[in-house]
Amino acid sequence: MRPLIGLLLLLATLTAGCATTAPDHRQRLEALPEHYRQFDLVMGWETRVDNGGTAVEGVVQNVRYFLMRDLEIWVALLGPQGKPVQREVSFVIPTDLKQDEIAPFSVRLPMAVKPGDRLRFTYKYRASEGGDGLERGNSWMQSFERVVAPR
User: Fold this and answer.
1) Domains of the chain and CATH, by start
2) Residues near 138 by Cβ (< 8 Å), separated by ≥ 6?
C-alpha cells in the first residue's frame, strides 16, 4: 500500500511541476522590448545578434478572429534603397491559433543587423469568423517596418 501512495505522490508532483514550467506567453508578450498592435493581432519580439546572425524571437496573439490558420511571420533586412537584402520565415505553431491565444515565433537571419538598420515584418494567414469554415474564410497579409534599436 505504501509504494502505491508513494507512486501517486510522485506522479502528482511531476504533473504539477510540468504545469508550472509551461511558458507564460502573456507575461512574455508584455515584457518584450518591441511591440506591434493592429486590429487582428498583437506581436512582441526582441532582436539579438549572435554568431554572426540575427535572431528575432517573440510571441504573437490573435486578437480578432475565431481562428487564424497557417500564420507565417516573415522578417526581411532592408538595404539602403529599401529593398530586401535577406528574408526568412517562421511558421507559427500551432497552425490553428484561436482567438486570444498566444504562440511563440522565431526567425533567424544569417546576417548581423546593427542599430539603425530597417527590418520589414510581413505576416499572413487565413482567418475564420466561426461558422463559415476556412473554405470561405479570409486570406490576409500585412507588413510594417521597424528600425533596429541601439543595444
Assistant:
1) 24-147 (2.60.40.1230)
2) 126, 127, 128
